[in-house]
Design goal:
Strand content: 15-25%
Structural class: alpha/beta
Order of helices and strands: EEHHHHHEHEHEHEEE
Number of strands: 8
Largest sheet: 6 strands, parallel
Shape: globular
Distance between the termini: 22 Å
Helix content: 40-55%
């Protein structure tokens, strides 16, 4: 059992609270299937137009060349690119999928139990994922266990910086109600944990599959292996 004292918990999503397979077998294919029709139907809406303009700027395309923009977006999905406009547009498409009941957000049962336990203990819980804040809220708001969003105090995405960059965690720590040393970061990715540790956070690596790289961070195979005591 890993025993830590913390005022805040910062958690990754994929591979930590949520099976990576859900993202790659459900969410990404859904966005890929619906990207073209969504862009054509909503291109002139301000929120969508804003993201398409960013895609155009990044790729050198004509902002009105929707087919070309879609080609780039679909290519980025295939490559699993951590690109902010793609993540924003995916989130908009997934909102329609969640609303229609096409799928619900996968949450590991042990993660559900752990998050509930720590929320009830008074620990402030935050999310940091490469997926957009909107997509994070959708996943937890339409989870297999219902709406979990009341448990979370805030969300962070790539607008805070890359997840393997220590400066991102320094930036996030400044936005939390406790300093980095009283914050625990959970992730399955070693480089993310290294970056968080460089920023002064406590870290735990979730190892849910055989053959994963591990380092100097405490290793948990589920949230059941982690005991968090709330501290002011």
């Amino acid at each position: 059992m890993i025993s830590l004292r913390a005022a805040c918990l910062l958690t990754d999503i994929e591979g930590t609270t949520t099976d990576i397979a859900f993202v790659h077998r459900v969410l990404f294919p859904y966005a890929l299937r619906h990207m073209a029709e969504f862009v054509v139907a909503h291109a002139e809406e301000p929120a969508v137009r804003e993201q398409l303009d960013v895609v155009a700027e990044m790729t050198g395309c004509n902002p009105q060349a929707l087919e070309k923009l879609v080609d780039h977006l679909e290519e980025w999905i295939d490559e699993d690119r951590k690109v902010t406009p793609l993540k924003a547009l995916q989130g908009m498409i997934w909102r329609e999928g969640y609303a229609s009941g096409a799928f619900t957000g996968h949450i590991y049962p042990d993660a559900h139990a752990g998050l509930q336990r720590w929320y009830e203990a008074g620990i402030r819980i935050y999310v940091y994922s490469s997926g957009s804040v909107a997509a994070q809220k959708l996943l937890y708001g339409h989870s297999d266990f219902g709406d979990l969003t009341p448990w979370f105090s805030g969300y962070f995405d790539t607008t805070s910086g890359g997840k393997k960059d220590a400066a991102s965690y320094v930036r996030i720590a400044k936005a939390l109600p406790a300093d980095a040393g009283r914050t625990v970061f959970l992730s399955d990715v070693l480089e993310e944990l290294d970056a968080a540790a460089q920023a002064g956070m406590q870290t735990v690596q979730l190892v849910r599959a055989d053959g994963m790289d591990t380092g100097r961070h405490p290793v948990a195979h589920s949230f059941d292996d982690i005991s968090l005591e709330a501290t002011p």
